[in-house]
Amino acid sequence: MPRSTTLVFAGDSITDAGRDRDDATSLGDGYVRLIAEAVGEDAVVVNKGISGDRAVDLAARWDDVLGAGPTVLTVYVGVNDMWRRFDSDDPTSALDFESTVTALLEAARGAGVERILLIEPFFVPVSEGQAAWLEDLDPKRAAVRRLAQRFDATLVELHDGIGAAAAEHGAGAIAPDGVHPTPQGAAIIADAWLAAYAAAPVGAATTGVAP
Could you tell me the domains of the chain? Predict the structure, then answer.
């Protein structure tokens, strides 16, 4: 990729990964840092993740995200739109989720973003009853897939790959609380992103399957 490429990552705590928000160069300790290490000096990498964000929270700070000047924008949101239903009785419908993310992507295209990657949200049930939570997340995953097609974005498939890794190694090795990845889980996300990025040229909607 040309050195003029600026990779901006917007999302929730999985993207944030403990970054120092007072330091614009801080990448956190998650998948964004691993991607930055992989691309090296070929691109500028900017982490705009904020822990706890839902789609509406991203919308409230979208000008700041686009102000980072992405040529390649990655959006990774959705699990908190599910989670708030169960921990705060504050649900987000799949329709509202899709409408909000649609507006974000329209603004990104309007701002001249050359390429968009959408990361599919994942959840690994780790306690009794949490399998039913997927009934809330699955329609949001479907919305992300539709939006990837609509906006010629690259879809980074994640849910099944993370689930398979958790089944093989145990959830504690991948995402102990079902959401926040360990270093091994973060590596799966980074590898999926890198594979999807490499597989599709700018302007081509496609999918990348997590190993």
Answer: 6-209 (3.40.50.1110)
State the burial class of residue 134 (Cβ atoms within 10 Å of its Cβ: 0-12, 13-18, 19+): middle
Q: What is the pTM of this model?
A: 0.92
- Whole-angstrom distance, CA of residue 201 vs CA of residue 68: 22
pLDDT at site 42? 87
**Angle at CA of residue 57, ends 180 and 101, nearest 5°:** 90
Q: Strand pairing of 72-76 and 44-49? A: unpaired
H-helix or E-strand spanning residue 187: helix 183-199
**What's the Cα-to-Cα distance from 132 to each of 55, 128, 129, 207, rounded to whole Å?**
22, 9, 6, 26
- In sequence order, the 6+-apart residues with CB closer than 8 A to the CB of 184 are 165, 169, 173, 174
90/192 Cα distance (integer angstroms): 31
Low-confidence ranges of the chain (pLDDT < 70): 1-3, 200-211
In angstroms, the Cα distances linking 118 to 3, 110, 171 are 22, 17, 24
| C-alpha–C-alpha distance, residues 72 and 109, integer Å | 11
Residue 52, sorted as left (phi over 0), alpha (psi -120 to 50) or beta, turns out to be left
* C-alpha of 122 from chain center: 9
Asked if 169 contacts 134 with a C-beta cutoff of 8 angstroms, the reply is no
